[in-house]
Write a structure and sequence with these properties.
Layout lengths: L4 H9 L4 E3 L6 E5 L3 H11 L8 E3 L3 H6 L6 H10 L4 E6 L6 H4 L4 E5 L4 H10 L3 E2 L14 H8 L18 E5 L5 E5 L9 E2 L22 E4 L7 E5 L9 E3 L4 H17 L4 E4 L9 H10 L3
Parallel strand pairs: 3-5, 4-7, 8-9, 10-13, 11-12, 11-13
Antiparallel strand pairs: 1-2, 2-6, 3-6, 4-5, 7-8
Helix pairs in contact: 1-6
């Protein structure tokens, strides 16, 4: 069910759940300060309570207001990269409910770059917790139709067109000493971030072993074709095998990846076989998504 930005803002203020576009993927949002509203996100997604949510804010000032400690490094990252596909994990204030953070003392924050998301956040006037608007472990939506295909009329969706980044945000944690740890790779690379040793109770969403997976179609990387499969290549076409050429440049590849997974899954392919991606930092996030999508 498509809704307007104004109606979506009213739904958020009244404790409801709406789907809306960001530059990364479509999010399933609720008032981050309303525990009951946040629980509705988990119910709609079938998401385990151990997976924290990222909170979308309209300004750096709002981000600071939700943090019990806002290190200088967090301020510098926010000024450099926001609005944009970067989530910053910092210590939270008590008003941010445990439902948002899975009981952790930290919260992930970001200002999205999409104009519809920015307008919605401004009109709603509340911070919005929003994971991707899909069922847990399935492919994130990059169009409003992807959301409707999953939730039908159960979730109002603001249609802002296709997402231009196409995969989820980069997530970093900033310590009080200014150390920046990479929790989840994204298309935005932070040169000073070091790869974190992820604890059993993760500080970031999107790190479940199986994730970003089509409902019916198996994702495979660099393996032999199986009956009813399609090869997805970014460097060449194959003779006598159904194939689809994806861009050779990582940001363009990312913008198309989830749409390809949604489309081929809907067409009923048995498997989607991807060429291994280059061992280059620019492709790290895409290799991460394909690896998790391929877990049985």
């Amino acid at each position: 069910m498509t809704t307007t930005i104004e109606d979506a803002a009213r739904i958020l203020r009244s404790g409801g759940v709406v789907a809306f576009p960001t530059e990364t993927v479509y999010g399933l949002g609720a008032n981050a300060l309303d525990p009951q509203a946040v629980r509705r996100i988990y119910e709609q997604k079938g998401r385990p309570a151990t997976s924290p949510l990222i909170v979308h804010v309209s300004s750096i000032e709002m981000a600071r207001s939700l943090s019990s400690a806002w290190p200088t490094a967090a301020e510098e990252l926010a000024l450099r990269y926001w609005p944009g596909p970067l989530s910053i994990v910092v210590p939270k204030i008590a008003a941010v409910p445990d439902e948002v953070t899975s009981g952790l003392p930290t919260v992930g924050l970001r200002i999205p770059r999409h104009p519809v998301a920015l307008q919605l956040l401004a009109l709603a006037g509340v911070p919005v917790a929003a994971p991707s608007a899909n069922k847990f472990t399935e492919v994130s939506p990059t169009t409003a139709q992807h959301v409707r295909d999953t939730f039908g009329d159960a979730v109002p969706v603001v249609d802002g067109g296709p997402c231009d980044v196409g995969i989820e945000s980069t997530v970093v944690a900033v310590s009080a000493t200014g150390k920046i740890q990479l929790l989840r790779p994204g298309m935005l690379q932070i040169p000073e971030a070091v790869i974190a040793e992820i604890e059993s109770k993760s500080l970031s969403p999107g790190l479940h072993p199986k994730h970003y997976s089509p409902k019916r179609t198996r994702v495979m990387v660099g393996t032999a074709a199986v009956p009813g499969s399609i090869y997805v290549w970014h460097t060449q076409q194959l003779d006598n095998i159904a194939s689809l050429q994806l861009p050779k440049e990582p940001s363009a590849y990312a913008a198309k990846l989830y749409a390809v997974l949604h489309d081929l899954d809907a067409q009923g392919y048995t498997a989607i076989v991807f060429e291994p991606l280059p061992e280059d930092p620019a492709w790290d996030a895409l290799r991460d998504r394909l690896h998790r999508a391929s877990v049985a």
